[in-house]
Amino acid sequence: MIIKIEQGTKYYEKNAVLRDINFTLEQGERVTILGKSGSGKTTFLKILAGLIAFDKVKYEKSDVKIAYISQKPVLFSHMTVLENVVFPLKCQKIARKQREAMGRIFLEKSQLDKFTDMYPYELSGGQQQRVSVARALISEPDLLLMDEPFSSLDVRLGREMRQWVFSQIEDLHIAAVFVTHHYEEAKVFSKRILLMEEGTLTHATETEIDAFFGDGMSLEGVYYPLEDWRLTDEGVPVHVENCLVLYGQRYWSVILESTGEQKFIIAGDETIDLGGKAAIAPVRREHNA
């Protein structure tokens, strides 16, 4: 176990923003935290990162290497993109040639290799965030804290970065705590999903997750939760990306033609050509209408 928190409480101006937090995290474990703005999620991540402290707590924490990706990129304005990315390696006394070679690899994976010698002020907000993500991963941390890191990226790039980051976490067996408002991110990232409400942290049930996201889609003026949708011959047009298994259940990863959004649709026994066009529709239309 790398983190164990019991009865953690944090005050701001005598108001409790975190109340009686109980939380544990094992090495390599992934946890997702949901919650409305102002519920205490960012404060909790900052405490895990060591940036601020609980006012009252019983806290056990292993000596682990931590990386933190905030909602907004925080870069050194006087450093180039490459210098920003390799800064953690410089702190680890890794030789300049070696760290720069590693940095160029990570910039290429982040689609930032064209901006190696540029400065943060010359980049867009999304590009700056990609630099932050690359910098967090390059040092192979034991614990990665992510506060909605993909929210400033466009749909396509956000999906590609998300898949790359999640694969790095899996391959390197990194423990991670992930704050998101994105349904697919939450479902794909971890089995363990927690809900932060008014400073309290609890296990999120499937009903609470669905209620939080209000996830699903409407067809002909009727709203259906995502679990009701399947691949069909007619319905909402999609492109089928691939088939994957999450928590023992097969899903189709599909992209909505109309918006470019990614959805995970429960898969049955059907077969389909990946990359091809298809459609999805709710299987309980007659039941819900």
TrEMBL record:
It comes from the Bacteria. SMART domains: AAA. The keyword ATP-binding applies. Coiled coil: none annotated. Residues 3-223 form the ABC transporter domain. This is ABC transporter ATP-binding protein. GO terms for molecular function: ATP binding; ATP hydrolysis activity. It holds the Pfam family ABC_tran. SUPFAM superfamilies: P-loop containing nucleoside triphosphate hydrolases. Keywords: ATP-binding, Nucleotide-binding, Transport. It comes from Listeria booriae. The keyword ATP-binding applies.
